[in-house]
Amino acid sequence: MARRALKLASLTAATSGIYLYGNKFLDPNDFGIVRVGRAIATVHLRSAERLRELCCANRGTFIKVGQHLGALDYLLPEEYTRTLKVLHSQAPQSTRQEIEQVIREDLGKEIKELFLSFEDTPLGAASLAQVHKAVLQDGRTVAVKIQHPKVQAQSSKDILLMEVLLLVVKQIFPDFEFMWLVEEAKKNLPLELDFLNEGRNAEKVAHMLKNFDFLKVPRIYWELSTRRVLLMEFMEGGQVNDKAYMEKNGINVNEISRNLGKLYSEMIFVNGFVHCDPHPGNVLVKKCPASGKAHIILLDHGLYQVLSDSFRMDYCRLWQALIKADMKRVQKYSRRLGAGDLYPLFACMLTARSWESVNRGIDRSPVSAREDVEIRSNAAAYLPQITQLLNNVPRQMLLLLKTNDLLRGIEAALHTRASASSFLNMSRCCIRAVSTYQRSKSHSLYRRAQISLGEALSLWQINLYELFLWLKGSQLGNWVIALLSRMHHSTY
């Protein structure tokens, strides 16, 4: 409760400060609440910086958990999320000697025997590994992902330590319910530490999404890959949230945002095999010189969530209900996903919209600055309910919430958040997924044909609506509307 009061005080103080600053007759520094608000924000910032320093000092598992916390925009104060997001791109690095040791132990050769050249400075360093650019003896340019040498040995001890720390914190702050973080780390970390598993995931998703010609997944070189060393085709590009890079290279920002939405809708709703770490360092964009098409390059395939059919169908139907603003079905499928009486809060967390916007229809109006402030204030006010939800929903939901937040962060950076086209693509994937599932459960030829007809009709309606939106926003559409308007007036 002390933590909740602290957040509410921070928000009240910040709001008061903005109002008083606009009044030239008042000095905001004369008001205690302003000074208290500033002090509380500073306490949050100092605590967040100390937490980041702890993660960097302990490395490995601690950085992984810090990255997860940095994605919880709907739950933690901004000082924490902004400070911990740095861990995505500025994790500590292993030394050259440590890298040589891992390669020698796993591949049985020295770096100079395997590569014509090997860049000492890594392309990027993450919580569990770092990536170096190198050239093989046959001239192929590759990316070499090498695990930090002590991560394997320390991971189990780190998880136990975090579990003890969280239990202690819970005794002090009963509202603090983060044990699910430890449970998820226990389950996912062994998979992420096995780079052969990551290679298999990369090949699986590349095959699964081969119809998307804009998606590029690096090829795996299995002959030089082990559990701690992964050799991949070298691919480069700008980070997906770098709007300036896209404008400089003639890449259409709206097209990238739309294709990223297609990609994740297909993974979540249709395939149930979801890349769960789409932070900007793992999603690159590049314009192909030959075709002129913009490619999305998906990296780091260590963390995937496999969705059960029953969960995936409930999730599909929930999103269909959210897009249609069908509150009865929103309540029904939210409850089936573990939200219980907190289904309004659950809907707001999924969509990052206010309850008013959810009721009105999340595709009806863009997110406003006022609504963003309202969402953050509600996150502070409903901390116990949010933590209760996170403990009650299926474990599959936790990584999806993190994925949603990371994707929204990209949309916010590109100023393409919550466009109508993204909801239309989601609707298409939901319709296809539900129809495919229903056909698989039906033994009647007539029933399967009926399902297919209904699917075709629903997809046709979406295409027609998309055409209407395009006409409405195009010069041709404006001309047609003006012509019809004149014809209408001339008849009277």
Distance between the termini: 67 Å
Major sheet characteristics: 5 strands, antiparallel
Contiguous low-pLDDT stretches (5 residues minimum) are 1-41
Radius of gyration (CA) equals: 25 Å
Distinct helical segment count: 21
Q: Which structural class best describes the helix and strand composition?
A: alpha+beta
Tell me the helix content: 55-70%
Q: Give the oligomeric state of the chains in this entry, treating copies of one chain as homo and distinct chains as hetero.
A: single chain
What is the arithmetic mean of pLDDT? 79
Tell me the total number of β-strands: 11
Strand content: 5-15%
Coarse morphology: globular
Question: Tags for this entry?
Answer:
four-stranded mixed sheet; alpha+beta; 21 helices; 492 residues; five-stranded antiparallel sheet; disordered N terminus
